[in-house]
User: What shape does this take?
Amino acid sequence: MDHPRLLASVRSGEELLGPSEAPIPLPPGARLAHLPGRRPVGVDPSTGELTLLREVVVRGRRIEPHAVGALLPPGYTRTFLPGEVKAEGPLLPQWAYTAAAWGQGEPVAWAVRTDRRTHWDPDRFSTKELRTRVDQALLADPDNRVLTQLRTCALVYRCFTSQNLFYRRDEGAIPVSVMCNAACVGCISEQPPDGPPASHARMDDGPSAEEMARVAVLHLAGATGRVMVSFGQGCEGEPLTRWPVIARAIRLVREQTARGSLHLNTNASLTTGLAGLFDAGLDSVRVSLNSAVKDLYEAYYCPVKYGWEDVEASIALARQRGAYLSLNLLTFPGVTDREGEVQALLELIERHRVDQLQTRSLCIDPLQYLAVARDTGAGGSAMGIRAMLGVLRRKAPWLRIGNFSRARFERGPTSAARA
Assistant: This one.
């Protein structure tokens, strides 16, 4: 409901405030989400003061209101979090909650369009023929554990990368691992008993190299568009824990086709394993991180038998080996855009001539991440996500900023080749 008098507030880190930028109309494919137990905070338009809404009167009834957030489609990055305060209520499930409000006759959200490539348009996914395509793929290779997992990912979780595999186009997912060497606070596939419910379930049994290769070859040989396969998805464990199996799969693939790109999504924890994948023929890698500062990175990832130094060693190795190098930056307004955090990230990008930065709004209860980030990481005032992106574009002009991995023909020379 639209409050008759108060304007919406937004959150930047620990701070609730009136928004300093205009929102955008809620993008096609976005959804509004109810935030149970979170009280909305409004802004008095006459004084600018913040007002916590503990109750409102609607048609003569007194009710306790709950805040609302937006869930954005691919290609957008949030700039502010919902303006809310926790009352009684659970930890929120792992989604990227974005500040939302009612605009001039339509809902609006505080976000920026960061990738305009239309092949990720939501209208191209979850179509009527998807289930038939899934059934046909399983009929042709019924015991393949990759396809068994992707059936759930495509039909239940509506994962676009998984669906691409069945549509035979663009980037296709190859799930790999059942285990992880990190215990990320916001892990979407495994949570402790006192955590929120995990939004995805990992596969029960890791596939063989032969199973991966069969799926990958079929996709690379016949897919249209921006053709690639990516080992390791956000809803599973860490693929480098199974790097020898992936290396064998890559070799099997390249024995049968030279088409398309072989890409890895990873936490970059095992530099030796990554070297083995480059030896086998891996040509692209995307490294996930929430910060380029050791203590904040490790506070969120909770690494087991590795640390930030190993991550940076793997980034350096990718540059040395001439792979296309991306960072998957898990962004959080009010933390990622602190002046010190932006400077540390920029120095990392410059030091290793990173090719691409993918901005990924971190999926977590905002208050849960604030507890992690409090008193960790680099300091300074939050400059805003839009301003952060502007700084990176100005000071690292070679850097591609977007949300999606690039196929071979889109990349041009890597930074290593240009240097």
